[in-house]
Protein: NADPH-dependent oxidoreductase
Amino acid sequence: MNETIEFLKNRRSYRDFDENYVLPNEELQAIVDAARQAPSWMNGQFYSIIVVKDNVIREQLVKWNPGNPQILKSSVFLIFVGDLYRTKMVSKAHESPYLIDESIEPIILATTDAALALENAVIAAESLGLGSVVVGSIRKHGKEISQLLELPEHTFPLFGLSIGKPTVAMEVKPRLPEKAVVHYDKFQLYNYSLIEEYNETMEIFGEARETKQWSQKFSDYFAAEPVMITDQLLEMQGLLKK
Structure:
């Protein structure tokens, strides 16, 4: 097995960082450059990256996300934004209509491009001996964050990334059984026992922050009344029709 694949298979999330560690500018630049080189549909690059160094801004983000204190304690916090404002500028320059709210497709494009850039940043950071953790909970305060960061119309914050020097070693988290995820040629139905097997695997792994079985956690999540925060943000930003 080559070193790159071994490196990818051993990726893990870190939430405890050395608060005194200063990330060199050249390493931050290397991470951002790697993120920007990620694959993108038609080379559209439908995202922006907000590099948040200002502690006042980060403190406010932690107030909204108290379960993620690493937003402030890491060396830097990146916010990946779905960006369809840039193509609004393009449409205006070409004097063409911009039917951005006629379909969910542009939102999927922007989300996918941002996610690919995020993963490149994760891998680049780890290759430099750093640690990182993705913060998806920023979407719960997407409207407030959009105002805080002065995001223009047709943009929406998707996820954050804390990067820094880890202070606590983490184990590689087990993934679902391969047969529940990987299919050849056609989707293959599988027995629910694979999910029960994964429940047991995660219980043995014993991650302290998990208080429920894997299956119970997502059964509860999707049984709850949907919170329409993201829908409201997309409407506010002119990406969904009201």
Remarks:
- The chain has a mean pLDDT of 94.
- The two ends are 51 Å apart (CA to CA).
- DSSP finds ten helices and four strands in the chain.
- The longest helix spans residues 105-127.
